[in-house]
Amino acid sequence: MDDVDTITTSFLTQIAEAGDTAALEDLRVAALGRKGAVTGLMKTLGQAAPEDRKALGQRFNQAKDKVALALDSRRTELDQSEMLARLGGETIDVTLPARPRPDGRIHPVSQVVEEITAIFADMGFAVAEGPDIEDDFHNFTALNIPPEHPARQMHDTFYLDQEANDEKLVMRTHTSPVQIRHMQSNEPPHRIIAPGRTYRSDSDQTHTPMFHQIEGLAIDRDIHMGHLKGCLVDFARTIFGIEDLPFRFRPSHFPFTEPSAEMDIGCSRVNGELRIGGGDDWLEILGCGMVHPKVLKHAGVDPDVWQGFAFGLGIDRIAMLKYGIADLRSFFDGDVRWLRHYGFDPLDIPTLAAGLAR
Ligand code: PHE
């Protein structure tokens, strides 16, 4: 055995015995690196007799290829077993019970908004939105509530210090300004609902300074009170899930509708507990009416061609009634224990796409 065979055999043995990829890398450097032993053989070629160089060169190259091949295949083996070892250590026991995670809850107000939206979406109403901070025109004047009108006092309005375009700014006292904004920027026919926050300076067990309403607006060439009634009766029976829910429409007054009505649903009070459905008592749930011609005009709609109805209902009230929550203020305390109790599973809320089962 000469040098070439000794060096080659020694490396092949060490490579076969290398225990990990780091040791293997050390061997590669020792053999084929710039100062490695096999590389060193090549450097001796210069001193060999010229007639021996070709044969010697071939042997060196074969030695180099053998070592390189051995390095490669050992690396593949080591990579494999290192990966298997890692996978072995990382085994997941899929039979373990899941760790409890704090899951979020849907607030009853959001839940009821979803439910109401789904019901009206089924009837072809789209959702519209408007700003919480309104100007005097959209919140009052366009809705046929001129300055000095007593309805402005009734609304206990929050006024802002700022003005915009010479208009007083207010926290909107109802969602009705969304009717105006929608009619101003869209062509009739209209069929929208507008859920959102509303504000009045008021606070007791059934009033909070911020509360929620849903506005409804349906404008077309021939929409009449019959449509209003059908829509709202359908809505009330669906939201409370009572097929024969008694109802009545009482004449009322709103400056922006003519005629105007309030809708009551049948209820009973047993030992102070309110029950929706049959009984001898009535509970007001919403205001409604045929949109006043002046309102249509203010919003740029020709009242000689278009007509329809509008309604507004308090979302929080519906949530209290439907889910038996006694104090409105608890809705807005932000107590997570309360939310855990009264909130809803996020995976259970009705989706618009699914529509409603009937
Ligand atoms: N905006 C009225 C309110 O806040 C409700 C309403 C809306 C009545 C639309 C009639 C038509 O009380």
Question: What does the radius of gyration come to?
Answer: 40 Å
Count of individual domains: 2
* CATH H-level superfamily title of the largest domain: Bira Bifunctional Protein, Domain 2
The main β sheet shows up as: 8 strands, mixed
CATH architecture of the largest domain: 2-Layer Sandwich
**CATH class descriptor of the largest domain:** Alpha Beta
The CATH topology annotation of the largest domain reads as BirA Bifunctional Protein, domain 2
By secondary-structure content and strand pairing, the structural class works out as alpha+beta
What is the number of helices? 12
**Helix and strand string, N-terminal first?**
HHHHHEEHHEEHEEHEEEEHEHH
How many E strands? 11
Q: Percent range for helical residues? A: 25-40%
Beta-strand portion reads 15-25%
The stretches of 5 or more residues where confidence is low (pLDDT under 50) are 353-358
Bound molecules: phenylalanine
Note the gap between the termini: 94 Å
